[in-house]
Amino acid sequence: MTLRDYGTAARLGLVAAVAVFGLSGCGKSHDRGALWKVVHGRCAVDAYHKPCTVYDEKDGYALLKDQTGRGQYLVIPTQKVPGVEDPVLLKPETPNYFAEAWGERAHVAQSYGFEIPDSHLSMAINSRPGRTQDQLHIHLDCLTSYARAELDKNMITEDWSLVSLYGHPYRARIVASLEPSPFRVIAADDMSIHTLVITPAKHGGFILLDDMAHVLDHGSGEELQDHECHLDDPHHKTMIMDGMDMGQHPNGMM
């Protein structure tokens, strides 16, 4: 299957999934505006910008510790941006939220309490079908050991190629830097079905991963992240040496 065929199949598959499975993200009782209420209604007005760790009005983003995981953080625009599909993300004057997120990566290791090399970190944004909140947020956390190993063994270049991760077909390519914004690198007609994941490449630059929601793939690139950071957790490494590996991915892979 060519990359063009893959894109067409993904769009058709998403339509079928919506019709058959009703991909609405969450139930009616779920508050999809909760994240915006925290950032806009609390961090923006609190004298110390709590509960946000960082609230940078000048650069237009906030950093919030996620409730899931020991070291996961969310980078969130301080303006209303529903998600990956918002056309404002393709404008050159819009803050580069991925670059801002990468600049805040030291907070992840601080929360875990141990050193984490950049190559073990990642940033992910879920597609509209694969997210639970309608305020753009970039997940900043560790990569799973399985994803890191698979990426390292694949010959990823500056041209798009396909990489299978947890059974999902990601397009992958190397970008020299986070400029321009990865949103502008993808710039698809329908950005709502795209999920983007970024992690450092083995020999410099970054690997940009792009999957599209289709059929049973909700387009949640967050699946490549380990919210316990088993790759670098000294306690987990001790358990592996003792023959007790408790770091299995929910998908059944490491």
UniProtKB/TrEMBL annotation:
It is a single-pass membrane protein. Belongs to the Cdh family. It is an enzyme of class 3 (hydrolase). Its main location: membrane. It comes from Gluconobacter cerevisiae. It comes from the Bacteria. Pathway: Phospholipid metabolism; CDP-diacylglycerol degradation; phosphatidate from CDP-diacylglycerol: step 1/1; Lipid metabolism. It catalyses: a CDP-1,2-diacyl-sn-glycerol + H2O = a 1,2-diacyl-sn-glycero-3-phosphate + CMP + 2 H(+). Keywords: Cell membrane, Hydrolase, Lipid biosynthesis, Lipid metabolism, Membrane, Phospholipid biosynthesis, Phospholipid metabolism, Transmembrane, Transmembrane helix. NCBIfam families: PRK05471.1-5. This is CDP-diacylglycerol pyrophosphatase. Coiled coil: none annotated. Pfam families: CDH (PF02611). PROSITE patterns: PROKAR_LIPOPROTEIN.
